[in-house]
Amino acid sequence: MRGLFCVLILIASVAANAQESRTSLPSDSESAIDGFRISYVRPYLTIHAREETKGTLNAEITKDEVEKAEGISLGYAKLPVQEIGWTSAGTFIQLREQGAYYPMARIDGSLAYMFTDNFGLKAGGNVSTFLDNDIVKLVLPSFGYQAHGVIQFTNNFGADIGYTRMSQVGVFSRDGIKTDFIEDGFEFALTGTF
Questions:
Q1: What's the whole-model pTM score?
Q2: Pairwise CA distance, residues 62 & 117, whole Å
């Protein structure tokens, strides 16, 4: 995790240098966020697991808070002010549960609208999967969604804050049990756009 901390310091220093290098007031095209984006992602997730027997409507649902989850995201953002924009990203997230680590990958895309240079909203869909070999054999990627507020401190540095829901679909086993997973909760990301 020390590496993620170093990435955050790098993002902050590049954003500060970019702001200092501006000598004139930004034009409309300069105030739009448009570029590659790197983010430190910190979700606070609850895992819901649903087991059901093939052919029955009865389902057993378990719910568990994830001890810790954090990750890094790479993507692109085009966020013009008072126009429809978009973001897309690939995210690697490490979940820690009962001392064990479970890596996940997520691809997401969102439509966005910036009300001002500093504040906007975005919402869209995602596809996520576990990367652990034992889990991948049992669970297939599925669709989820997200809705976040976008805060831009500068053109290069900002934060996304909101709700994220990811899901995976279990494969029927020989004994007829199917397990579906849903991970959802509050998510915070520090973003650097270049």
A1: 0.78
A2: 43
